[in-house]
Amino acid sequence: MSASADSHRLTLVAAPAGYGKSTFLGDWVRNCDLPCAWLSLDRFDTEPVRLFHGVVGAIQRAASTLPLPGSDALLALDQCLAHDRAASYDLLLRALEELTEPIVLVIDDVHLAGPGLANGIVGVLAASAPPSLRLVLSGRGHTPIQLERFRYGEGLGELRAPELAFTQEEVAQFAFSLGQDAAFDAGSLWTMTAGWPVAVHASIVALAQSGTVPVTTPGTTAKHVPLADYVAEEILDQLEPSLAEFILRATTCDWLGRRLAVELYGRPHGGVLLEECLRNGLFIEEHDYRGGESMYRWHSLFAAQCRRILERRDPLLAERLHRVAARYYQDTDVVECAAQALQGRAPRQAVMSLGAHWLDFVLGNDAQTLERLCRDLPTPWSEDPEILMIRSVCRQLAGDSTAASELTVRALSRTFVLDALRRRRLEGCRAQFELTPGIGRTDLHAAPAETGRLSRDVSGDRHSAACSTGLFLLAQAEFRLHRTGEHAAALLQAAGGTGAPEQLEAIEICAQADLALAFAGAGDLLGASEHATRAVERGDTLGWSSQERMAPAWLARGIACYWNDNLTAAQTYLAKAQRLGSDLLPSGPLSVIYRVLTACATGDPARLDESSSVLESFHTRGLFSGSWNALHTIAVAKVADAQGDLDGALAMAQPLGAGGHGALVDTLLAELLRRGGEITAAQRCTESLARRRGNSYVDTCASLTEALVAHGTGDTATAHERIEHAVHRAEPGSVLRPFAERREELAELLVQHAVWGTAHESFIAALMARDSQGDARLRTQSYWSLTEREREVLAYMRSIMTAAEIADALYISVNTVKTHERSIYRKLGAGSRRDALKTAAKRGIV
C-alpha cells in the first residue's frame, strides 16, 4: 500500500464485504509517514454539498500538521460549497497546488455515495488533483470514477480481493491468535473459505465454540459456517432489490452461464445482472468457455450461504430452482444434474440422466464417479434396474465379477418396472459386456490375429456399438496395466472400425486419442502425431478440447515432440495433457514423467523445480504399481543428473539394479549407468532391452549407448555398426533427442562415421549441422562472417556428400551450393573442402 501511494496519484482498494478493507487502511494510516486525511462515506453523502464539506474538512485536518506557508491557502478555504460548484472546486485545486508536502486522502465506503460520485468533488480530485494529493478510494466492487485512463496512462494502484485474502500461513497465524494450537488444520479451512477473512474468523470461532467438532480439524461444510446472517445484512441488503433477488436465485449452482442465469432468474435480463455481479466483484469469477458460452463461478462459501438464506425464506422456491438447474444440466453435466435433482427432491431426473449418459463416464475413465452417483440415489431409485445394471458395469470394470453378476441378476429381476425405451437401453448396456468377457482380467494378451478376427466377426453384428465400446474398454485395461502399446493399438483400431460413424463418433474419437498414445508408446511417432491431430480436430468439433478424454492425444503429441527434440512444443502439449489427465490412466502420471524429461533436456532450473514438485505430488497415486515406482525413481535420478549431481543420480537409481523394468526406464537407466562409469551394468541393461527394440526411440537410445560403450573400449567396428543402426532407426521418425542428449560425446564420432561410410548421409549431416548451430560457446568472430546458408552448407561439407546431394538435402540448386562453397573457401582462405574444414575446426566454427 505504501509503495502504491508513493508511486500513484490514485489508488483503488476494492473488494466485497468482509475482506477487512477499513481495518487494513486504518492500520496503514496510523503507520504511514505521510499526513493522512480520512473520510468515511454513508448513504447521505450523495448530496454534493455534504460531500464537499466532508472532503475539505478531512484535508484541512491533515494539512494542519504541515508547516506554513504551504498549507495556509488550504486552511483558509470555506468548507461550504458555493452556488457555483466549479468555482469552489477550482479554489480547492489551487490550494492543493501550493502544498509543499504531499497529503494522503483516504475515502472509505465510496460505493455508498452512488453513481453521482464521479460528478462531484471526488471525481474532480481523481481527474485533476495535483501530485501533492494522493487519493485512496476504498469500497465494494465497481466505482463510478473513470479509471481506464489511469490504468493505461499515468498508472493506477489497485488492491483487490486476492491481495486482501488470507494466505494459508495467515490463516494458521490467525487461528493461533484465537487460541488454536499448532495441530489446527489451516489448509482445509483456507481451501473452504478461499481466504475470505470474515469467513475464516466465523469458522474458527464456530469450531472453538462447538462441543462436538474437534478444534484441530475444520470439519464444518460451507453450508454450516455461521455466516448467512452476515451475508444477508452486510451484502444482500445493501444491494438493489432486483440484484439481491437475482443473486439468491443464481447461486443455486456454483457454476452457471448466461442461459442458466436467465432460467433461474425467470426474466430475460438475468444475463445483464450476471455481468453486473462480475463488474461489482460480488464473489463471482469468469472462466473459460464451455459449450459455446462463458462460464461463471461463485465463491462456493458465499453461494452456500445464499442457498441457506433462500431455503429459510422460501423453501419451495429453492427446491424448484434446483429442479430447473437439473433440467438444464441433464445432457451436459450429469454429476451436476444428479446433485441438483437430489436437492430439488427429484431423484427420477437423476436416474434418467444417468441412464442416458452413463457411457460418457466409462469413455472418460471415470467409472468410480458413476458408481458413486448410483449408490447415492435414495430408495427406491437406487434399486432401479437400469441403475443396478450400470453398477454392474462399474463392478465389472473394477474386476469384481462376483458383485457384477449379483447386480445383473437383481437388475433383470426388476425389468418389469421399465418402459419399452428404458428396457432396450438396459439390454444394450448388458450387451456391451457380454461381448467383452475379458474386462477386468489381467490375461488380455490375445494374438493380433485373434483381435482382427474379433473385429471381422462383430462388424456385421447388430450390437456393433456395444462391441466397439467393449474393445475400447479392453484397450483401456491394457493402459491401466501399463503394458506395451502394440496390443492396445490393435484393440483400438478394431474399436474404431465397427459400426456406423454417426452412432459411434464418441467411441471412435476416444479410441483414436488412445490409439495415438498407444503408437507413441510403441515408438511410432509419425502415427502418434497423425492420430493425435485427427482426434484433437474431431474433438474440437464437439467442444472436447479441454476434456479428459482428449488427454491421451495431447500426451501423444508431447511424447512425439520430446523425441523429435522439439522441446518448446513438448512442454506445451505435456502441460495440457497433465492438466486434463487422470491419475488412474497414463495421461496424467506419464505426462508428468515426460515433463521431467523435457525440463532436464532444457536445463531450465525453474522448470526442473516445478516438474520435480509435480512429480512428487503424483507419487503413490494411480494404478501403475511397480512400474510407476520405477518410472518415479529414474525420473528423480534424471533430475539430479541434470542438476550436475551424477553421483547422487547413480545412488538414487541403485534400487533399479541393471534392468528388468519397463522399456523407457531401462533405456534411461542404461545411459545413466554408462555415464557413471558402470559399464558392465549398462551393458546388462541394454541386453535386457533385446526383445523390446521394436520401439524406435528405445532402440535408438540403446544403440547409441552401446556405440559409446564400444568407442570407449576401443572397439571401433562395433561403435560404427551401432551408430549406423541407431541412425537407421531414428531417421524415419526424426528421433533426434537421443543424439542431442549425447551431443558432446557423439560430435567427433559422427564425423568419423561419415568418413567410415553410411547409408544415411543426409541425416548424419543434418545432425552435425544442428550441433554446429546449437553450441554458442564454440562460435568465434569468423563464424559470424559466414551467412546462415553458408554455415548450413559447411556443416554438410563435413560428410562425404556431393554438391548435388547437399543441394537435394537443402532443397536448393547445385549451382547455389557451389556458389556457397566458393564463398566459404574465400572467407576461410582455403583451396579445397579438406582445407576449409581444417580451418573451420581450428577457428571453432565447426
Quickly list its features:
single chain, Rossmann fold, mainly alpha, 46 helices, Arc Repressor Mutant, subunit A, 5% strand, 846 residues
Distance between the termini: 56 Å
Provide the low-confidence segments as ranges.
211-220, 435-463, 480-484, 498-503, 620-626, 774-784
User: In DSSP terms, counting alpha (H) and pi (I) runs of 4 or more, how many helices?
Assistant: 46
Give a short account of the largest sheet.
Answer: 5 strands, parallel
Q: What quaternary form is this?
A: single chain
Q: What spatial order of strands do you see in the largest sheet?
A: 2-3-4-1-5
**CATH first level of one domain: which class?**
Alpha Beta
Count every beta strand, where a strand is a DSSP E run of 2 or more residues.
8
Question: How is this structure best described in words?
Answer:
Helix content is 63%, strand content 5%. The chain is mainly α. Among the domains are: 162 residues, P-loop containing nucleotide triphosphate hydrolases (Rossmann fold, 3-Layer(aba) Sandwich); 59 residues; 87 residues, Winged helix-like DNA-binding domain superfamily/Winged helix DNA-binding domain (Arc Repressor Mutant, subunit A). The protein starts with a helix and ends with a helix.
Short description:
By secondary structure, the protein is mostly helical. Helix content is 63%, strand content 5%.
